[in-house]
UniProtKB/TrEMBL annotation:
Single biological process term from Gene Ontology: purine nucleoside catabolic process
Coiled coil: none
GO MF term set: purine nucleosidase activity
Superkingdom to which the source organism belongs: Bacteria
GO cellular component terms, A-Z: cytosol
Annotated Pfam families: IU_nuc_hydro
Record-given protein name: Pyrimidine-specific ribonucleoside hydrolase
Domain Inosine/uridine-preferring nucleoside hydrolase as annotated: residue spans: 4-299
Keywords, alphabetical: Glycosidase, Hydrolase
Amino acid sequence: MTPLIVDTDPGVDDAYAIALAARASEVELRAVTAVFGNVDLATTTTNARRLLGMLGRGDVPLGVGAERPLIHPTTQRAADVHGDDGLGGVAERFGPLGPEPAGRALDVIADVLSAATEPVVLAAIGPLTDVALLLATRPDLAERIGRLVVMGGSIGIGGNVSAGAEFNVWSDPEAARRVLVEERVPTTLVPLDLTHVVTVDRAWLSALAASGPVGEALAATRDVYARGEALGVDRVPIHDAVALLEAVAPGTLATVPLELEVDTSLGPARGTVLADRRGRAPGGRTVDVAVPDGTDVDGVRAALLRRLGDHM
């Protein structure tokens, strides 16, 4: 099975993603690392422990990552979307707590990469600070990453934290630029352009809740999360789970190769991902960007429900 590492900031949609990763038959979950983001680092770490405990995955090492961005401090969290506890105000439904952290995220990731006998998939579904630090401090391990799958950015539909920026990239634009523009690790980016299309409704959530304890806990996060996402329809996105599905089942999402740039200015466009559609420049780096056109959106929803349900 393909080795998998998940770097995450749980987060409601992160909870869906971790559940999917823990249960996927195609991969072997080798580590989970927690980074600041939706809530503070202490809470994301505790939430990761809750999820691993609930899923019976005490065998998975947990690493503690960055508590702040590379350069500029963040000016807001996402408690309005994920609740003060990061899990929709119902964190007590998740657990028992899994294992104590095994060490620093960079050390945990480096250990997995060093020991792996085949390329590792690294799914980064929070701010990209940990990934940027890893690639900067251990460039010798970059070639051991077979694929980096990132949930982040918004290419053409506007942002969810500013007019142009998506939360994960906006939280640390300098790290995002390092990873998406400067590095050469094969990368798939799953932006809001797709995750705002792959939304789920009450019927989907009711079916998930009826599937068993894990599905019930995940579905219980809906009320706070739906209000925070505020898409204007009775549907909610589960961004990170869509990215994780692509990580464990490559080719599920249609992609197009694009050259990207990340705005790291301190102005209103900070954190915006810009896609150059003029064609690849000589020597330019492209990232595979997931898009709605060509993606079986209904099939993605069905696959997520089937994989997340306890007995489906």
